[in-house]
Design goal:
By secondary structure, the protein is α+β, with helices and mostly antiparallel strands. The protein has 9 helices and 8 strands. The longest helix has 21 residues, at 157-177.
Length: 262
């Protein structure tokens, strides 16, 4: 892990270079050209952006935002994103938040290693699948929503609420992609749909105990993504701010601190 001692708001925690980009030492990164990602290791939305940056071959500086300490609620961070959510991407003097917007920006600004196909229909299919994840699945399983369900209905309904909404979205995605998938969601080349799907599938199985055997197409897509070095480098446990204890990954177990799935 590299640490940079460049000026930054004091409340935003450590500033780190992406440790998986061994070809670019921290001293060679120019402040005028570097891409900076404000991320949290357990954030699913940050995860998909890390995966996309790796696939597109864009080196970036990793700035950890400690959600448990409320660093996303500070006035300094509000200047980056008024919604107080990660991820946030800074490219020179331009700031963009929301993973969907970030990926669309990256696709236009850095067209190499395209994450959207040229074919109009396949492009639309990728955008549809990505949007199902970022509008109909992930937001309904966020900490704030789950806490509200617990307060209004009861703690026993948290998991069932999450599983119901994940199942609904995954069934739709399974039907949508069944006839278009190859190795990946829309063929044998990885695109934006896969970038959104893979982290969400991992979270569904790991956090919400979803039985992925019910969704064979999605399971196949995930296995293909899991084999990629770009995906492995984007894993939560590979990030500089991952919580380690005794040399092993320590996932936040306190339900009041499940900020990770923002």
């Amino acid at each position: 892990m590299y640490e940079l001692f460049s000026p930054r708001p004091p409340s935003l925690g450590p500033t780190m270079v992406n440790p998986h980009d061994s070809s670019t030492p921290p001293s060679s990164i120019s402040p005028a050209s570097k891409v900076v990602l404000y991320s949290n290791w357990q954030s699913s939305c940050s995860w998909r952006v890390r995966f996309a940056l790796n696939l597109k071959g864009i080196p970036y500086e990793y700035k950890a935002v400690d959600l448990a300490k409320g660093e996303h609620l500070t006035p300094e961070f509000e200047k980056l994103n008024p919604l107080h959510l990660v991820p946030v991407l800074v490219d020179g003097d331009f700031v963009v938040s929301d993973s969907y917007a970030i990926l669309m920006y990256l696709e236009e600004k850095y067209p190499e290693n395209a994450l959207l196909p040229v074919d109009l229909r396949l492009r639309a299919l990728n955008l549809q699948a990505a949007n199902i994840i970022c509008s109909s699945v992930q937001p309904l399983t966020m900490l704030g929503v789950l806490k509200l369900i617990e307060e209004k209905v009861g703690p026993e309904e948290r998991l069932s609420w999450a599983q119901y909404n994940i199942d609904k979205g995954f069934i739709a995605l399974e039907k949508l992609l069944k006839n278009s998938s190859g190795k990946y969601a829309t063929g044998d080349k990885i695109y934006m749909a896969d970038v959104f799907l893979a982290p969400q599938i991992a979270i569904a199985a790991r956090r919400f105990n979803m039985d992925m055997s019910k969704y064979p197409t999605l399971g196949m897509i995930f296995e293909s993504c899991k084999a990629l070095s770009e995906f492995e480098a984007s894993l939560p446990e590979r990030q500089p701010d991952a919580i380690q204890q005794g040399g092993h990954l320590r996932w936040t177990s306190n339900e009041t601190k499940w900020n990770l799935w923002l």
